[in-house]
Amino acid sequence: MTSGCRAVLVASNSHPLSAPNAFVHMPTYIEVAKQFGDLIAEQDYAGARALLTGDARVANTPDQLREAVEGMTSYAPGPIRKVLVMEEFILQEWPEKQDGDVAVAYVALNGDSFCEAVSVTIVQMGSDYRIRRLEWGRP
Fold first, then answer.
1. What is the total count of domains within the chain?
2. Which residues pair with 23 in a beta bridge?
């Protein structure tokens, strides 16, 4: 399995402290999945939505993201305390894979009295990763 790690070479002399040929970190698809989970845990649904593809943003408003989380955790309401991308369960090949899809990541969302999750299908769009599909809840 590849790690999804990327770096971009940037040559810049615009700032006196900038080093020539400095590397700028580009988020990996694992980091994008984790960032999405973290934003959901922080109840920053607009921020989480910004990580979605255009079509996924149309299908998922911030209110719909909030409602999905609240519905999934309604049996034990409370904040999400821990977000973990289950790297050992990342899929890079699956039957419904579409052009541009990179991985399906399982993001655990744990609270004091619940263990839930969201599975995210991640697509590469140019040099960025975005989330194309969400599947709420444990399998």
1. 1
2. 9
Is-contact 87 30, C-beta < 8 A?
yes
Per the prediction, the chain carries an average pLDDT of 86
Is it the case that residue 9 has pLDDT exceeding 50?
A: no
In a domain, 17, yes or no: no
Is the Cβ–Cβ distance between 15 and 134 less than 8 Å? Answer: no
- Can you tell me whether residue 19 is helix, strand or coil? coil
CB atoms within 10 A of CB 49: 19
Question: CATH no. for residue 109?
Answer: 3.10.450.100
User: How far is the C-alpha of 127 from the C-alpha of 125, rounded, in Å?
Assistant: 6
- HSE-up of 48 (CA within 13 Å, CB side)? 25
For residue 46, tell me if it sits in a domain. yes
Range of the domain at 123: 28-136
* Burial tier of 113 (Cβ tally within 10 Å: 0-12, 13-18, 19+): exposed
Residue 51 contacts by C-beta under 8 Å, 6 or more apart in sequence? 32, 35, 36, 39, 130, 131
pTM here? 0.82
